[in-house]
Amino acid sequence: MKNILIGVIVLLSTVIIHGQTSNDLLNSQLNEMRELFLAEDYEAFSNYTYPKVIEMMGGKESMIQATRNSINQMKNEGYQIIDIKYKEASDFLKQDDELQCSLTQELTMQLPQGKILAEYTLIAISNDDGQNWKFLDTSGKSKETMFKYFPNLNPEIIIKQKTQKFVE
Prior knowledge:
Elements: H1 2-12, H2 24-38, H3 42-45, H4 51-56, H5 60-76, E1 80-87, E2 93-95, E3 98-111, E4 114-126, E5 134-137, H6 143-149, E6 163-167
């Protein structure tokens, strides 16, 4: 089940934010993505995924199917994503032609053993000066690992270590 959870977290990219940045377009796009995810419209949801992630997943259709399969398998095994929130937005950083920032992602899941809260970093990237955003979910991977796969990240980007705990 751990591999399924990790896979789903990678595929999610993001789901909800409540005014955690100073960029209204970023907040609006995160909220729209939340609605698409909750409606299980993974095709539209995938439009917010950072393009290199889609490429790594074998293309958009493969990513959509993998997301759908992972979510369905989780549900069948009694696991459910209850909520995803964001906090602690970093400053916006320029890297080549991209604007980047990171947020702390809070993922609350119902497991058969109880609820867990996991926190790790989500990266927002815009290549049109903040008009449109794509998202890169670190899934708790280290900064070194993220730079291995995404060398275009600004060296000052904040990527926190993943934490998780059972909650009431």
